[in-house]
Amino acid sequence: MGRNKKVTAEEVLQFLIDKGVIPKRTVAEYFKVCDVTIRNRVRELREDGEAIIHGKDGLLHIDKNGNMEDEEIADSLRAWYDWLLSIIKGLTIAATPTEPLMITMKRTLRESLTSEERKKLSKACAKVKALLDYEEAYSEDT
Fold first, then answer.
1. Are 21 and 55 in contact (CB under 8 A)?
2. What is the pLDDT of residues 66-94, one digit of tens each?
3. Residue 11, phi then psi, degrees to nearest 5
4. pTM of the complete model beyond 0.90
């Protein structure tokens, strides 16, 4: 790929808005930068309040103004749930501390996410758990 070319978060945002769901690798190739650069720009965008999710099909910018159709939103949420569940399945497999994979996962989490991002992820997981528990209780009552 050669020397990294500068790409701004705004350029990445506009590209995501124009293209819809697109793999991170494709975005990196388009801007002739490495995947890490795109990951950093996406992190900047998220810190600025942009709603960008990363599902199995790639990155997707969610329009917070509600211009998406209900079906598009449902599909996006389904993709996000699928991605999240696959991550959780992987975590449960590696949850035994004696397995070397757990050490790698710890290191990757430490390198990929800041302390603040890990705290936010932890809170979000707790909220998802509470939502699932609520839905289970509600389903049993009806």
1. yes
2. 555 667 667 767 777 777 777 777 776 66
3. -65, -45
4. no
Enumerate the domain spans of the chain. Answer: 1-68
62 backbone dihedrals φ, ψ, rounded to 5°: -100, 125
* Integer CA distances (angstroms), 51 to 32, 58, 90, 96, 120, in order: 24, 14, 25, 33, 15
In this prediction, residue 1 carries a pLDDT of: 45
In the predicted structure, residue 142 carries a pLDDT above the cut 70: no
Q: Which of 84, 86, 41 is nearest to 61 (CA)?
A: 41
Q: Which H or E element spans position 55? A: strand 51-55
Report d(CA 80, CA 82) in Å as an integer.
Answer: 5
Q: Per CATH, which fold does 1-68 belong to?
A: Arc Repressor Mutant, subunit A (1.10.10)
By CB atoms closer than 10 A (0-12, 13-18, 19+), residue 117 is: middle
